Amino acid sequence: MSIASKAAGVEFRNVSRRYGNTTAVDDVSFTIEAGNLVTLLGPSGCGKTTTLRMIAGLEMASSGTILIGGKDVTRLPATDRNVTMVFQSYALFPHMTVADNVAYGLVVSGVRKRDAAAKATEGLELVGLGGYGQRLPSELSGGQQQRVAVARALVLEPEVLLFDEPLSNLDAKLRRKMRDDIRELQQKLGLTSVYVTHDQEEALAVSDRIIVMNKSVIAQTGTPDELYRRPKNRFVADFIGGANLIDGELVGRSGGTATVALGRLTLSVPDPGLPAGEVLLAIRPNAIRLRTGSADSAGDGIPVTVRKATYLGSHMEYGLTSEFGDLFVVDPNVASPVPAGATALATFTGDGIAAVAR
Amino acid sequence: MRPRSAIWLALGWVGFALLPWFAGSGTQPALAPPSPGPAGSALIDGLTNGRWWLLPIALPLLLALAVTALPGLRARRPAVLLASGAFGLAWITVQGFAIGLDGWASGWLGALFGPLALGQGGFGAGAALTALSFLFLMTNGFAGLGFMKGDRFTAGAIGLVLAAIAAFVFLPVGYVLSGAGDTGSGGFSAAALGARLAAPDIWRLSCLTEAKSCGVVWNSVFLAVMTGIATTLLGLAFALVAVRTGFRAKKLLRVLTVLPIITPPFVISLAVILLFGRNGTVTLAMSDWFGLPASRWIYGLPGVLLTQTLAFTPISFLVMIGVVQGIGPSLEEAAQTLRASRWITFRTVTWPLMRPGVANAFLISFIESLADFGNPLILGGNFEVLSTKIYFAVVGAQNDPGRAAALGIILLCLCLGAFWVQRQWLGKKSYATVGGKGDNGIPSQLPRGIKIAAYATALPWAAFTFVLYGLILFGGFTENWGRNNSLTLRHYLAAFDLSWGPGGLIWSGRAWGSLFTTIEVAALSAPLTAAVGLLTAYLLVRQSFKGRGAFEFLTMLSFAIPGTVIGISYILAFNQPPIELTGTITILIICFVFRNMPVSIRAGVAAMSQIDRSLDECSLTLGAGSVQTIRRVILPLLRPAIVASLVYSFVRAITSISAVIFLVSPKYELATAYIVGRVEQGDFGLAIAYSSALIVLMSVVIALIQFAVGERRIGRRAATPVTLQEKPV
Questions:
Q1: How confident is the model at residue B269 (pLDDT cuts 50, 70, 90)?
Q2: pLDDT above 70 covers what percent of chain A?
Q3: CATH match of B222-431+443-474 with 3.30.565.10
Q4: What is the topology of this protein in the membrane according to its UniProt annotation (chain B) (predicted)?
Q5: In degrees to the nearest 10, what's the CA dihedral of B87, B92, B97, B100?
Q6: DSSP β-ladder status, A83-86 and A71-72
Q7: How far is Cα B426 from Cα B323, in angstroms, rounded to an integer?
């Protein structure tokens, strides 16, 4: 016996969830392909956790249709769905041993005790906790508890494995390791996983695709690369990676790139598919370089004053004042930093700029 | 849904077609003609005896059978189950109330539909099972339509709890309301209701102007206010001594808090009589030393006030301990760093923070005093209060249930009013100053004057209480207290004698019968109480559904209904079809279950709030249903709460008197009712012996349980104010 995958796809068709007058999820549609890890990303209160809980069957959709593996499960309670979840608090049963926790789902679905125990042992070995079966959850560290929770969800061979902010209770170092472990396990077993987080870096690191949610609706769906390089709107541009948002004007396009005027400068960006006219430029902090020199030699840059300069070892962070407003810059050049109060020239590298609607 | 619906449907058919529909007890006249067929089920009775109104019950059962059996109708199943369940339940209820023992229950029904040849008796096993089956078919249909997250168990549990509360709390209270307007010929008139409610002996104020006694309402309210003030002050003094002084014997004060749980409410009265009665120790000493003539001054307001203060001070103490402990010491330290003296700190910080808690303690004692029955019954003399007046209106020479009902309405309104004030007004006013964050402050010492005052009130009172309990335990061993103080085992032998006869051991003592019944009733009602209470707590904490707030209020309401009102209402409601229970052991058990349920709910809610909700959700996503989740996850984690609520419902069933004194019968006599009967006969020796036996028994039970479960866990629980302040009286 071994732990296999029964990965299935998930589809939401016009799903809404309302509580009285407030709408937590508003007419949301998306498709998650089998074997993918998809992240629901957004600020708190955007409806991502509610969406996840509707996949689990812990919340019922007020309207719309939810399909798992092509089957309509909209009215099916959590018990009857083949979906498991790793909870933010881990939710390990404190009165059961680690092995009993992992075997719980198997035992309640009628698997013979011996088979359940064998499979639980296997699950624990899979997450690197072989030999910890007879301990109580309270005797484990936070990271170990997290692994038990993952093993418990895995041994049922779910169609979909859900993660609700699984790393938020861990410290920064452990978080990075667990993140990589989860991704590795998911890819090894070919699981369909849905992962909720509000940490955009975590989302970029683990996902095949990301669904960005804001104010109960989907703001954008795409691969991490698409979302970072070609955000569709101001919210996504700002939320993923952070960006300086500056007014510009789209003046022309040719073959997949568009030309945008910013003051005297013209920059080329990936074609946003917007009509010519006013647009908003999203400039990544690392797409700006600082050059000391007099303002009159400004051919390809804009004159700025350095308001604040912070030394962070691997890079410099600058706060700049310019005619287009304040700018935030991350510059890898730590050998010859520009001091605060100096005037300088800001130039733009070709990559890391996108145009979105105003 | 299919298997469970099918099981309930099958049980519905069993109840309808096989089991006897009517209760065949001796309290109702023989139903003519005697039911033929195997068991006198509704089906047989309806077909052969001419009770045609039972036959429509088959209709929803057939309908439900059709949708369950025919796969073609699957899509319609939930809606049809809901409709047929609702119709079946409604039909059973309506026909049950419309047709009584001698045909139509009300004259206008007869006028409308013509006379009936036959009447019918109270519901029996068949009717109960069929009604239950309809209830669950209805809730299954409800869940099938997608309500309650499609959870059949939750829907069924809510339905069950609501139906039970409707039948055993609201129906009886409704009977009290209609009973108060009874014209004597079975009709209802607002004029009769008004006349009874406004009777002069209830409301008159003649004691202010002339030397007559005032109306019974004023007596009750005056007594309750006085008791409230006295117990609150004493409770505050105890709490200050226990929390804010270096008093050594704090554990001894904690013992005080256990006393009201294990003591039948009237026992304090007996002890007070031993001290201050005509042959009391103090009375005799006074007449020996100072020549004061022995009088009956203790019988009346002074005696009742004294005993109620003694009985309720521990409850007030518990509430006040919570309040005093809840004041963050760092607040007082802050005041002192701002150059306030100890006294100014107490006056400007400590006392204002305690004030809402003080008001709360007052209201709780106020309600307890209004509802108290045992003490005024024994010590009241000519001083009448509402609860005793209700009792005498039913059992005395008057035998006027209408009058008892009217008095019950007034008492109910007073208690519910105080209860409402306590919940609504104080609920929003309390300051919780100790938050989740650590408070490193050290509670400041009391100002000198207050400290002395607290010691001077609390310690003598505590000593007095312990002396009284000592007297109770000792008094049973004297021949005749005050007159002949020689030691004897006579009373204990009379109560608990054992002898060997030809058939083996003979329980020849007089108390055995009632003691065994009491233990039997308590043992049967305790698990039921715990089950209903914890189920309700689960619904309140774990499930969100529309009307949850109202649901919670309804379940807690039965706490505020005084025992005497419950007693009178059960007599009025369950003495006739369709639910005929008086004189059975069932009515005693049901009475205890619904009297003690709020305590069990509170214990369950408190414990369940500690268990993170994600544990249940996790269990659900792992494929366990609601029932399995409860059994494997929630119940094991709730074990201390379960034990606590089992113990308290058991102990309270043994010590309570006010409601059950109306419901006991010669066959099912309870210990407390028996003791009160002995007191009324003047047989103090036996009463005291029996009471001390009960107290010792209760102490042993509690000690054993504490030993078994672990002193700390249950001990802490015993000390939570919420659990105890809702002790029904």
A1: confident
A2: 98
A3: no
A4: Multi-pass membrane protein
A5: 140
A6: unpaired
A7: 13
The phi and psi torsions of B512 (rounded to 5 degrees) equal -55, -45
Q: Is the pLDDT of residue A12 over 90?
A: yes
**Chain A residues near residue B636 by CB distance under 8 angstroms:** 95
Domains of chain B by residue range = 2-145, 222-431+443-474, 491-496+503-725
Say what the pLDDT of residue A296 is. 55
* Domain range B491-496+503-725, its CATH number among 3.10.25.10, 3.20.20.70, 2.30.30.90, 1.10.3720.10: 1.10.3720.10
Distance of CA A322 to the CA centre of its chain: 32
Query: Measured between CA atoms, how close is A143 to chain B, in angstroms?
Result: 18
Write down the pLDDT at residue B484.
74
B131 CA to chain A: closest CA distance, Å? 28
Q: How many CB pairs under 8 A join A and B?
A: 72
Pairwise CB contact (< 8 Å): A108 & B623: yes
d(CA A7, CA A13): 20
Mutate to test the interface with A, among B622, B626, B627, B635 (most CBs of A within 10 A): B622
Instruction: Answer yes or no: do B623 and A109 touch at CB < 8 A.
Output: yes
Task: Please state, in angstroms and rounded to a whole number, the distance separating the CA atoms of residues B670 and B592.
Answer: 12
Q: Is the pLDDT of residue B39 over 50?
A: no
| Strand partners for A38 | A194, A209
pLDDT in tens, B224-259: 999 999 999 999 988 888 887 777 777 777 777 777
Rounded Cα gap, residues A2 and B515, in angstroms: 62
Residue ranges of domains in chain A, CATH in brackets: 10-229 (3.40.50.300), 243-356 (2.40.50.140)
pLDDT of residue B131: 92
* Residues in chain B within 8 Å Cβ distance of A91: 612, 614-615, 617-618
Whole-number Cα distances in Å, A302 to A339, B439, B634: 18, 55, 65
The alpha carbon of residue B619 is apart from the nearest alpha carbon of chain A, in Å, by 7
Instruction: Name the closest residue on chain B to residue A56, using Cα atoms.
Output: B621
The answer to whether the CB of B173 falls within 8 A of the CB of B412 is yes
Contact A37, A208 (CB under 8 A): yes
Distances (CA, A) of A71 to A66, B90, B155, B651: 8, 39, 26, 54
Q: How far off is chain A from B432, nearest CA to CA, in Å?
A: 27
For chain A positions 111-170, those within 8 Å of chain B (CB to CB) are 152-153, 156, 162
Residue of A nearest to B625 (CA): A79
The torsion angles phi and psi of A158, rounded to 5 degrees, stand at: -75, 155
* Contact with chain A for residue B636, Cβ under 8 A: yes
> Are B617 and A75 inside 8 Å of each other by CB?
no
Are B222-431+443-474 and B491-496+503-725 the same fold in CATH?
Answer: yes
Q: Distance between CA B684 and CA B541 in Å, rounded?
A: 48
